[in-house]
Design goal:
This protein is an alpha/beta fold. It is 50% helix and 8% strand. The chain is built from twelve helices and five strands. The structure holds zinc ion (ZN). Zinc ion binds next to helix 6.
Length: 358
């Protein structure tokens, strides 16, 4: 008799757990189904709760079933995605998994070292202004190879970098140099701080080149947060909340920032602002080559226009813009030159280290 009761008890407990799981998932679904409900605070909460589930081994894998796929094929991601995330390409940082998120949830930009140059800034603008995500997370991670490589290069014992890497990691140099200068730390001790500083560097670099992002943040429609993902525990550490706004304030006072420009350019001319890139500003590709963006009813206006419900950008004197761009391009070229020189000396050091018998 008591054995039967025990069995019943187990069955009842299992049923209750099942109901609880169903209710929790249902709640997860409703929270993100309505575009009108998307806010920076709710988006952040969804990511935080998703990461807690992931860390606890209790992921629900929400919004990944066939009905969600069906929605993805017929509806506009701009009505559903709730966050834009910039993070590193590192294989240990699978974005949707670490936030226990699903399809049409996160607009993701991944690049080694989570740097922001032209393509990344453009992708972020797309995620914020066109996919309408109210939250941008710049997510660094522990043991980042890109930040480590730059730290080694700055400290004079880097290794050879392939042809295209110096330009890619050039934006990390200021973060590492600042960290070494201010902390007095060196080598492995400095890297965790450099990783955090690099998150803020990316936020800074984004604000410098993206007037539309600055406007969205100033209007309160978009919030920017920094975070560090721990590859060993799966835990996301959320960084100081007010830091992005103080960076924005700094950038707003910086005359070198890119200003709103040629939204009102004559038809047929490229209106987009060439990004701060290590090469001289070339023609800006108007449409992305990959088909991802063309799905559903997504609109494809990639010109540098302000968010739809914002007032049109103030037309700036064209000459002033060109001067600003020239100055920026010159700065970027200098940075790239420095990075290339560092890479060359690193390559020499490696060559010497590899063939010490000579
Ligand atoms: Zn990394």
């Amino acid at each position: 008799m008591s054995a039967v009761s025990k069995k019943n008890l187990i069955i009842i407990t299992a049923l209750l757990l099942g109901v609880l799981l169903f209710v929790t998932m249902g709640d997860e679904e409703t929270k993100v189904q309505s575009k009108d409900k998307r806010t920076p605070a709710l988006s952040l909460q969804l990511l935080q709760e998703g990461n807690e589930r992931f860390v606890d081994g209790a992921s629900l894998h929400p919004r990944t079933d066939t009905s969600r796929l069906e929605m993805a094929g017929t509806e506009n991601q701009g009505d559903y995605a709730f966050a834009t995330v910039l993070t590193c390409s590192d294989s240990r940082v699978p974005v949707e998994r670490i936030f226990d998120a699903g399809i049409m949830d996160i607009f993701v930009i991944r690049v080694a070292g989570n740097v922001v140059q032209g393509d990344e800034a453009g992708s972020i603008e797309y995620g914020l202004a066109h996919v309408h995500t109210p939250l941008l997370v710049v997510l660094g991670h522990t043991q980042c190879g890109a930040v480590t490589a730059v730290t080694n290069a700055v400290e004079g014992h880097g290794h050879a970098l392939e042809r295209n890497i110096p330009g890619l990691v050039a934006p990390i140099f200021p973060a590492v140099e600042k960290t070494l200068r201010l902390s007095g730390l060196h080598g492995a001790d400095a890297i965790p701080l450099a990783i955090e500083q690099n998150v803020w560097q990316s936020v800074h670099d984004l604000f410098m080149v993206s007037p539309s992002t600055r406007d969205l943040v100033k209007s309160g429609k978009v919030r920017v947060v920094g975070a560090i993902y721990d590859v060993a525990t799966g835990k996301v550490k959320w960084l100081k909340e007010d830091k992005p706004l103080s960076i924005l304030e700094e950038v707003e006072a910086d005359p070198a920032r890119i200003m709103p420009d040629t939204a009102a350019a004559p038809e047929g001319e490229h209106a987009a602002t060439p990004p701060a890139h290590e090469e001289a500003p070339a023609a800006v590709e108007e449409h992305p080559a990959d088909g991802d963006h063309a799905q559903g009813t997504e609109e494809l206006h990639l010109e540098a226009v302000p968010a739809a419900d914002e007032p049109a950008a103030q037309p700036e004197a064209a000459g002033q813009n060109i001067e600003e761009l020239k100055a920026l391009a010159a700065q970027a070229a200098e940075a790239a030159k420095a990075a290339a020189a560092a890479a060359e000396s690193a390559a020499k050091a490696l060559e010497e280290a590899t063939h010490p018998a000579k």
